[in-house]
Amino acid sequence: MSINAPRGTQDILPGTSEKWQYVEQQLADLCRRYNYKEIRTPIFEHTELFQRGVGDSTDIVQKEMYTFEDRGGRSITLRPEGTASVVRSYVQNKVFGLPNQPTKYFYMGPMFRYERPQQGRMRQFVQFGIEALGSDDPAIDAEVLSLALNSYQELGLKSLKLVLNSLGDKESREAHRDALVRHFDPYREELCQDCQVRLDQNPLRVLDCKKDRKHPAMETAPSILEYLNDYSKDYFEKVKQYLDVMGIEYVVDPNLVRGLDYYNHTAFEIMSEAEGFGAITTLSGGGRYTGLVKEVGGPETSGIGFAMSIERLLMALEAENVTLPVDEGLDCYCVVMGEEAERAAVKLTDQLRRAGIQVDKDYLGKKMKAQFKAADRLGSKYVLVLGDQELENGVINVKDMASGEQKEVALDEIIEYMKEKIAGGE
Ligand code: HAM
């Protein structure tokens, strides 16, 4: 009986993994320019971190976590997102006390959510995200938004839409919350079971319900923007002004509600508007969070960040027909004939590799013609032909596969010769 990978997971095989490596490198380089440093946190955490951090009333905590008891009887959860872990680490390592603030992190790694798998929605997916902790300056909100957009634009995506909202501060949200309860209460019985609970626990979540989306009360629901107090309004205005000075276009959507509880002030999503992208159009999301650091045991400090999945980024690149400049070929292939030559080839390939040249050879005892075929299939730029005769003469035959040109090079000069060829061809 054969065993397949679990539903909602995937193997990333050569041919695709080069694309992953390329985008991961590009994203890391983008972070370097914005001065965000890499943080790596564990893949599993104490369940309580997400219950408190992400929020008990969210779908993620209620329905989607991979939670299990470890052999020591502790409740452990595979991380469904990165922010709670980053904040936990920031508090645990007392990073808030270090001189260089704000703290700017980026992360990349697998996350786990027990969701119904479909295109762009996996049970294991890789998130790239950033978090800036320790500053309440609206300019850093704008910086995060710029990095988020740029991460798509630099890879060549064009059909993007930045959707922005403000969820206000605590006071504004409480006023909005009361208004939402007043608004939806008369329709309580008509709402789904989940929303009836949400109305008591976290009425904002009602606006995000997939089942009740078409209920007439949704359209007339009070907008958060009407309940922003002066500080929150001013904060939102400043974020928008900074976006304007950078020439970043956005659409304000007062109904934008994020799937996690920790947000206030700035909340945003980036959508793909490319045709054929699929049913799920959200590429990434993020926002500001004020209560989270304190919730996890740290000081009253706020942060802002966003995350995207690499899976959806690659889907968007495909939908917009962007070809990434990934080289799946090979620098050179060593064609070998004869026992003595075989020994010399083992030595030579090793020396070439140590000199920085990408090289492969045959390990299946293939005939010369078949070795040439293999070199061709692998997309090798050069073929080095080494037979016992060449060995005796102290030479090696170098064939340029693009031009078909052949040249005899002295064996003791081959490494320098190839180094020049490869560097020159780049
Ligand atoms: P999120 O909206 O839950 O936010 O997820 C962010 C992004 O992760 C989504 O926009 C999507 O690209 C990707 N994603 C989420 N679930 C899946 C899935 N099942 N399959 C594939 N991709 C998925 C967060 O996780 C927050 N931690 C973002 C954040 C960072 N907020 C502040 N800082």
Automatic annotation (TrEMBL):
Binding sites annotated in the UniProt record for L-histidine: E81, G82, T83, R113, Q127, E131, R258, Y262, Y263
MF GO annotations: ATP binding; catalytic activity, acting on a protein; histidine-tRNA ligase activity; transferase activity
BP terms from Gene Ontology: histidyl-tRNA aminoacylation
Predominant location: cytoplasm
Keywords: Aminoacyl-tRNA synthetase, ATP-binding, Cytoplasm, Ligase, Nucleotide-binding, Protein biosynthesis
Its EC number(s): 6.1.1.21
Catalytic activity: tRNA(His) + L-histidine + ATP = L-histidyl-tRNA(His) + AMP + diphosphate + H(+)
Lipid metabolism as UniProt keyword: no
Record-annotated Aminoacyl-transfer RNA synthetases class-II family profile domain positions: 1-325
InterPro entries linked: aa-tRNA-synth_II, aa-tRNA-synth_II/BPL/LPL, Anticodon-bd, Anticodon-bd_dom_sf, His-tRNA-ligase, HisRS-like_core, HisRS/HisZ, HisRS_anticodon
Coiled-coil intervals: none
Keyword Thylakoid: no
Subcellular location: Cytoplasm
NCBIfam families registered for this protein in UniProt: hisS
Self-association and partners: Homodimer.
Family from the record: Belongs to the class-II aminoacyl-tRNA synthetase family.
Protein name as catalogued: Histidine--tRNA ligase
Origin species: Halobacillus karajensis
Gene name of this polypeptide: hisS
